[in-house]
TrEMBL record:
Main location: membrane
Lineage, top ranks: Bacteria, Pseudomonadati, Pseudomonadota, Alphaproteobacteria, Hyphomicrobiales
Domain Cation efflux protein cytoplasmic residues, every copy: 212-289
Top-level taxon of origin: Bacteria
UniProt protein name: Protein p34
Record GO biological process: intracellular zinc ion homeostasis
Residues passing through the membrane, by range: 12-34, 46-64, 84-106, 118-138, 158-176
Listed GO CC annotations: plasma membrane
Membrane topology summary: Multi-pass membrane protein
Family: Belongs to the cation diffusion facilitator (CDF) transporter (TC 2.A.4) family.
């Protein structure tokens, strides 16, 4: 991630803190005026949002640090730890909701001042919906696992709030007070599913998962069309580490080619890859044509496969 994108991610992470605190305040106010267990469960999830926003801010700041002697490949993977922690916090929030809601199933009560409470909660949901959209777009554009995880979590909070609003309206209209705690339990189930997805995506990043198929195809196309003078490319490997993308492959050249000529080809290929993947960190191993090809191969434009 370049300096400009890093600064943007840092700003977004910072503003997530006061926004999450404001939304938490609105949801707790909605619970206070109604006494609704479902609204309390929605508020408890927002406590997790506040903690997650603080963690994301700290981790994104750390991940932006340049490479050093102890971390020669940079600190990009730190963002995955933020996402894993957020996933765990989501699960904790779900368990807290069940703890609060389960007793109320056996002693249900209709909420008080439902119109005011639902209006306050709806306002919090609108703020969250706008912010979730901002984070998801920015997380994808900046390749920030922390921002993207935060966006997915807040979007799940929006879905939760929508379900709470509908459920409480039904409870009030029908007089079935038990719908309030039952809805809180359903909210907890939804949160558990979202938390497991956040953890799974983050673990993939920590395990050096290959870049998405469309990104790898773009890399192959860049190599194929700018490797003129070489004989082939093989053993292509990619991995994503936060905002950074690592690309590694072997470039086969004629045995009699000079180092300078091979270097020019490498420079041309590197420029082409970075044109389609600006964050790519590229390592090219140049070898003579006598070496046996292995791994993922790239068919060169107008050339032959190594």
């Amino acid at each position: 991630m370049d300096a400009a994108n890093s600064a943007r991610a840092h700003r977004l992470a910072f503003w997530g803190i006061p926004l999450s605190i404001g939304v938490l305040g609105l949801k707790l106010m909605a619970w206070w005026v109604t006494g609704s267990v479902a609204l309390l469960s929605d508020g408890l999830e927002s406590i997790v949002n506040v903690v997650a926003a603080i963690i994301a801010f700290v981790v994104i700041s750390y991940a932006a640090k340049p490479a050093d002697a102890s971390h020669p490949f940079g600190h990009h993977k730190a963002e995955y730890f933020s996402a894993v922690i957020e996933g765990v916090l989501i699960v904790v929030a779900a368990l807290m909701i069940v703890y609060e809601a389960a007793p109320a199933i056996f002693d249900p009560k209709l909420p008080e001042a439902p119109v005011l409470g639902l209006a306050i909660n709806a306002a919090a949901g609108i703020v969250n919906a706008i912010w979730a959209g901002v984070l998801l777009r920015a997380g994808k554009a900046l390749r920030s696992p922390a921002l993207e995880a935060d966006g997915h979590h807040i979007f799940s909070d929006v879905v939760t709030s929508g379900g709470v609003l509908i459920g409480l309206a039904l409870a009030f209209l029908t007089g079935y007070a038990v719908l309030d705690p039952l809805l809180a339990v359903l909210v907890a189930c939804n949160i558990l599913i979202q938390g497991s997805k956040v953890i799974a995506r983050s673990v993939d990043g920590l395990m050096d998962r290959a870049v998405p198929a469309e990104d790898e195809e773009a890399i192959k196309a860049a190599i194929a069309s700018h490797a003129g003078g070489s004989l082939g490319v093989h053993d292509l490997k990619t991995r994503q580490a936060g905002a950074a993308m690592f690309v590694d492959f072997h470039l086969v050249v004629p045995a009699g080619m000079t180092v300078g000529e091979a270097h020019l080809i490498c420079d041309r290929i590197e420029d082409a890859i970075r044109a389609v993947q600006p964050t790519a960190k590229i390592a090219i191993h140049v070898e003579p044509e006598s070496e046996e090809a292995h791994g993922v191969r790239v068919k060169l434009t107008g050339g032959r496969k190594a």
